[in-house]
Design brief:
Length: about 575
């Protein structure tokens, strides 16, 4: 099952199980966006949502995810509890719990959901469903508690839960079932269905412009986002997992289409820049650099990222973090108040009498990363492209796991070999050596695999081929890149391209994170031997999600920038 569709199904199933869709497409299907009143933040549409729902319910991914540590952690989160509270309020108002039986009873074919308020979960749902089946749904069977009303010659039913004032309204008209949590949304949709003039989603500029830029044939699932309005919503800013709101501010709309096939799931996204951002954008960037760099990616590389025109700071940070001076970065700032230890006011203890106060404390002996020469080298090179490669590997003997990395930088002209080796050496000399011991480049390999390696204990290798500078955490990743130099560049480039080989990286990554987290579990009294412990984030929480998505072999993304429109193609390769 696809990852993005998995997220959508998870959200809809947990949030309010009243957003499914229909059964058999009809030649008289209408554009459901023309029924949705204006003002929605999110619009989700499918030509056959019942089929998607059936696939999800029968999938091994659903079963594995519900049994995973990832789901159990999510089920205790504040977001889940908030959604569960909304479910309960809906159940009281509707007279039926928003569970899978209700979801299946109102699932039709052509279907759409418009979300108008994230915090209050205000939505309008429309699905194509024969009227007889619609009136036999679990929702309609309890309509005696609803108040009947009428608009544009269509009857509809409304009930308000008195304690929380949660509203549920539904109607069956012209072989469509409509369900809403606001009466005005339902009345507006029925008026539009009757041909009454009103302002709808289909007439809003953000939606019409994004639809024009999107694929002509909508996917098995289409998601449209009113980004300009979404980013003003506090709940979106709080729960958006990517935490990239500043980067999204340049866009005002997005449409994503998901297409399914037996061996892959493809997602086509378009993002529209705002008018001001589009006018300020430079000319369309040259995407050929990425196409040339992608040919260098080894077949066994677990992760790759390539992009055009990396900045000097970006290239320097990558070299430092991944190859030259990898280190643990700063942790995420805590949002919890510090704990307070209540004592009797006593300061110090008898052991403090043994502390020497006449000897100065020891000072750290760590060296420093000295990037000045390397930074100047990168700035003078006028970089046109960059490539990052990374893989998880089991160490010899199989007891431990680690990573190996390589960075490839393409310059506008040929690199100066002596200057490049001297700049790299000067940046790390203070970290790894004293008096220059073990800080000499030694030539390794012959012919196409010729490269240089430091003669000390630190694993660092580099190679130069014309405009390409290759730096790796050892000889293996550098030689793997050199072996691909004879390949012809692909025709498809982009301003950015990346890939992750999930099938090959799963086991070593989980092993590596388990080796890191298990000592912490033992130190703090947790771990797998302790019943009911909170799952560790990497090896158990994310590991559980990886297990649930074991059928996903790899993921790739390619980004094209056309100024006003940015397009992204994401492909999930599946195991047959």
């Amino acid at each position: 099952m696809k990852r993005r569709t998995l997220w959508i199904f998870g959200f809809l199933s947990v949030a309010l199980a009243v957003t499914p869709q229909g059964q058999a497409p009809s030649s008289s299907n209408i554009d459901l966006a023309k029924l949705m009143p204006a003002g929605s933040l999110v619009y989700l549409e499918s030509p056959d949502f019942a089929a998607l729902l059936s696939d999800w319910n029968k999938s091994a991914e659903k079963k594995a995810w519900l049994e995973s540590d990832d789901y159990h952690v999510f089920s205790r989160s504040r977001l889940y509890l908030r959604l569960k509270e909304a479910q309960e309020e809906f159940a009281v108002a509707a007279g039926a719990p928003p569970d899978m039986p209700l979801l299946e009873s109102i699932a039709g074919s052509q279907s759409a959901l418009a979300l108008y308020d994230i915090g209050n979960l205000e939505f309008l749902y429309v699905t194509r469903l024969p009227t007889a089946r619609a009136m036999d749904s679990l929702l309609a069977r309890g309509k005696e508690k609803f108040e009947p009303r009428k608009v544009a010659d269509f009857a509809y039913y409304v009930h308000t839960e008195p304690a929380k004032h949660r509203v549920v309204a539904f109607a069956a008209a012209n072989d469509y079932l409509l369900l809403a949590t606001r009466e005005d949304l339902l009345a507006g949709a029925l008026s539009a269905l009757a041909g009454k003039p009103m302002r709808t989603l289909a007439e809003e500029p953000w939606f019409t412009n994004a639809s024009a830029a999107a694929a002509a044939r909508p996917g098995d699932l289409r998601l449209a986002l009113n980004l300009a309005s979404l980013m003003k919503a506090p709940h979106f800013r709080s729960y958006w997992i990517q935490r990239n709101i500043p980067a999204l501010r340049q866009y005002n709309a997005e449409i994503a289409d998901v297409y399914r096939s037996p061996d892959a799931i493809r997602e086509e996204r378009v993002l529209l820049r705002s008018t001001a951002e589009s006018a300020a954008e430079p000319a369309t960037p040259d995407e050929s650099a990425v196409a040339g760099l992608l040919r260098l990616v080894p077949d066994d590389s677990g992760l790759y990222r390539a992009w055009t025109a990396p900045s000097t700071e970006q290239a320097l940070d990558l070299l430092r973090q991944k190859v030259l001076s990898p280190a643990v970065g700063p942790g995420v700032p805590s949002t919890y108040a510090p704990s307070v230890m209540l004592t009797e006011g006593q300061t110090g203890s008898e052991q403090d009498l043994e502390t020497r106060i006449d000897i100065p404390p020891l000072t750290g002996t760590e060296g420093n990363f000295e990037p000045a020469a390397l930074k100047k080298l990168l700035a003078d090179a006028k970089l046109v492209g960059g490539l990052q490669l990374e893989s998880a590997r089991e160490m010899p003997g199989g007891a431990f796991a680690g990573t190996q990395s390589a960075i490839v930088l393409e310059a506008a002209a040929d690199w100066n070999a002596e200057a490049a080796r001297a700049a790299l050496l000067s940046s790390v000399a203070g970290l790894w050596t004293t008096s220059g011991l073990g800080a000499q480049w030694v030539e390794r390999g012959t012919g196409d695999t010729a490269h240089f390696e430091l003669d000390g204990l630190a694993p660092l290798a580099m190679a130069l081929r014309g405009k390409l500078l290759i730096v790796g955490s050892g000889s293996s990743p550098v030689v793997a890149v050199l072996a691909n130099l004879s390949k012809a560049p692909g025709r498809d480039g982009g301003v950015y391209a990346a890939g992750f080989r999930h099938a090959t990286e799963r086991a070593p990554l989980i092993k590596m994170t388990r080796l890191i987290e298990t000592p912490l579990a033992q130190q703090f009294g947790g771990g797998q031997a302790t019943a009911g412990h909170e799952p560790w984030f990497f090896s158990e929480n994310l590991g559980g999600l990886s297990d649930a998505l074991a059928s996903v072999q790899s993921e790739s993304v390619v980004v094209h920038d056309r100024g006003a429109v940015v397009s992204q193609t994401v492909v999930y390769r599946l195991r047959r």
